[in-house]
Design brief:
Helix content: over 70%
Number of helices: 28
Radius of gyration: 30 Å
Number of strands: 2
Number of domains: 4
Strand content: under 5%
Shape: elongated
Largest sheet: 2 strands, antiparallel
Distance between the termini: 101 Å
Mean pLDDT: 77
Low-confidence stretches: 1-29, 637-648
Order of helices and strands: HEEHHHHHHHHHHHHHHHHHHHHHHHHHHH
Length: about 650
């Protein structure tokens, strides 16, 4: 019977031929995932086919022959890359070794080399998004796996009687050493047809499958080894960098032992037992480091699109998620790191020499190490946690609050209750949409940093244009006697249905463009605080809410006391200024998403004003400022006519 691995791999191969133009990156990742599972299966189960040069199971041996051939064909079908030829030779050697019925040790050594080469040449295809809940995993294991694998994971469950092949004994050290977390996760996801191992892709969520992989992947780790590993992880310089999330997921314990030694092997065991230790700031810094390396490799191979995508991911999916935390501890370092990432993207965008890009990548990698040292204190301090939490909400929410305050003050001053309701509909809808988007991104589909920035960029530019229009509309009506008469009577009559929905849309887009990213930033911050300092995250949120409320109340009180004409002009200025700021941030987000070109200019960054050192961003803001100034000082026709009539 065909193994499910074969079916899955053939399906992936066909998908790559049919749909490569649409989803080349995801297909490549899926191909590699299937190959990693395949080679690990050969390395772990060959002993059931051949022992001391003798075939002990014809069925298992036939399967090993089939798998080794499929592995060779699969690697041959992968895209060209530096190191692929060596990888293909390794696969052919493994296939010949199986045919010659060599000893298990030789097969495991070849499988280990191939697995390592796959990860080195083609990168890491999948990573868990959050720390696995090991308590939930333990319960899940008992209800899902224990009937076959046994209560303690020794493969002796009641349903295992007579099962061929027998369920895996997860406490077996030799098997533990040969299986990576990626291989375990892929097996749980895809299953193994022809055995009792079913596929759980539809039955369990991605988070639950990762939790199970970590749970069964630590069964062979003893307490002394874990204690040794914990000490090594915290006391040996460079150990945390060696055992990044990517390496812990992609490397089998024997790979780690061969690459880094006995202490790292023990530290890996500790991290499998305590995966929460992986999900701090190092997770995001590791993402940055790996993507920078991928960018350099892709650029050297002439794949500019892949290089650009990797460079963007290095910043958006990695460093940006800890940017606020770094700023709370060492803001000059944060600004310096931003420039290093920007320099890498500039080298790719301007098609500079590979040597120049390599130098810039090396500089960025160096500063990532500096950032890691600054943050690597076992968790953020209380003050750093509070500061990061406060500025995440206050900075992200200030623009939206100013827009809402301006609109609501206007409708309250004009006694337009119906218009106020529409504004409330808008921002409440934005909150719900933001939380829903976060839920979808966290639990249902993967939304990359580039997609996040693209959403914010489009919303930002659109919001800037609408705010510009509303601001100019307020200014142009500030001296309009006709409009003032409307206000003095009943503004709800003056505002048409279309205008009311426009107010709701302004409120919606002003809030939505901030809420989704704010939630993600807090999610990242939460993984970097200790039990003793986690309360300060909530203190920061509370103080930020209080400050935003104070800004809102202040705006209301000042606005209500101003004469109507002066209020219109003051509000118009606020909205036009916000249009200037949001336009700059919107263009920057589109550039970070790779949807808009980048040409860097030598000017400082003023983040609060949306000013970034790119020609496109500054140009768009100058256009907003210039057009606003022209319309602001343009003579008001109604006022001019009234003056002329008075003069006559």
């Amino acid at each position: 019977m065909k193994n499910k691995i074969i079916s899955a791999f053939v399906g992936l191969l066909l998908a790559s031929l049919c749909y490569a133009p649409m989803s080349q990156a995801s297909t490549k990742a899926a191909e590699q995932t299937a190959l990693v599972q395949l080679v690990e299966y050969i390395g772990a189960d060959y002993i059931n086919a051949v022992d001391e040069g003798q075939i002990v199971s014809e069925a298992e041996y036939t399967e090993m022959q089939e798998f080794s051939q499929l592995l060779t064909e699969g690697i041959a079908a992968l895209p060209d890359a530096k190191g692929k030829s060596n990888l293909l030779n390794q696969a052919k050697s493994l296939q010949n070794a199986v045919e010659n019925q060599v000893d298990e040790s030789a097969i495991k050594s070849l499988a280990q080399s191939i697995r390592g080469s796959l990860v080195t040449v083609y990168g890491i295809p999948v990573l868990p998004k959050a720390a696995p809940n090991m308590a939930h995993a333990a319960k899940l294991y008992q209800t899902t796996c224990a009937s076959c694998h046994g209560i303690t994971g020794r493969g002796d469950g009641p349903a295992a009687v007579g099962m061929e092949p027998a369920p895996t004994d997860f406490s077996e050290v030799a098997r533990y050493d040969g299986r990576s977390m990626l291989g375990l996760y892929t097996t749980i996801t895809q299953g193994v047809d022809g055995t009792g191992m079913m596929a759980y892709e539809g039955a369990l969520s991605e988070t639950e499958r990762w939790a199970l992989a970590f749970y069964v992947g630590q069964k062979a780790v003893t307490e002394p080894v874990a204690d040794q590993g914990q000490k090594a992880l915290h006391n040996i310089p460079g150990m945390k960098k060696q055992l990044s999330l990517n390496n812990v997921v992609s490397m089998a314990p024997e790979d780690v032992y061969k690459a880094y030694g006995e202490q790292a092997h023990a530290a890996l065991g500790y991290l499998r037992l305590h995966p929460e230790a992986l999900f701090n700031q190092n997770q995001f810094l590791s993402i940055s480091q790996d993507n920078l390396t991928l960018a350099g490799t892709a650029y050297a191979q002439g794949d500019l699109a892949a290089a650009k995508q990797a460079a963007l991911a290095a910043y958006l999916d990695g460093f940006e998620m800890v940017e606020k935390q770094v700023a709370a501890v060492d803001k000059p370092l944060m600004l310096k790191a931003e420039k290093r990432f920007m320099a890498v993207r500039e080298a790719i965008d301007r098609n500079m020499e590979p040597s120049v890009l390599d130098e810039r990548i090396e500089a960025a990698q160096s500063i990532i190490s500096d950032v890691g040292e600054v943050l690597d204190t076992g968790g953020l301090s209380a003050m750093a946690t509070f500061s990061a939490s406060f500025f995440i909400l206050f900075r992200e929410g200030l623009e939206a609050i100013l827009v809402l305050a301006a609109l609501l003050t206007f409708t309250r001053k004009a006694k337009a209750e119906k218009a106020s309701r529409y504004i409330h509909y808008g921002w409440i809808g934005a909150l719900l949409a933001g939380v829903l988007t976060w839920y979808v991104a966290t639990h249902l589909i993967a939304i990359s940093g580039a997609s996040r920035e693209l959403t914010e960029g489009i919303a930002g530019v659109l919001a800037a244009l609408i705010l510009f229009y509303v601001g100019f509309w307020m200014h142009s009506n500030a001296n309009s006697q006709k409009w003032m008469n409307y206000i003095k009577s009943k503004v709800d009559t003056a505002l048409g249905q279309g205008t009311l929905w426009m107010l709701a849309f302004v409120a919606f887009i002003s809030v939505y463009r901030e809420i989704f990213e704010t939630i993600l930033f807090y999610q990242a911050l939460w993984t970097q605080v200790d039990i003793g300092t986690d309360n300060y995250l909530f203190y920061g949120i509370a103080v930020a809410i209080a400050c935003l409320a104070a800004v809102t109340v202040l705006f209301f009180r000042i606005g209500m006391r101003l004469p109507l004409g002066l209020f219109f002009k003051a509000t118009a200025l606020v909205l036009l200024f916000l249009a200037f700021v949001i336009m700059g941030k919107g263009v920057a987000a589109l550039q970070e998403a790779g949807a808009l070109g980048v040409y860097y200019v030598n000017i400082p960054t003023f983040d609060w004003f949306g000013i970034y050192p790119t020609l496109q961003g500054v140009g768009a803001q100058l256009l907003i400022a210039g057009l606003g100034a022209f319309l602001w000082f343009k003579p008001n026709v109604e006022q001019t006519n009234a003056g002329a009539q008075k003069h006559v």
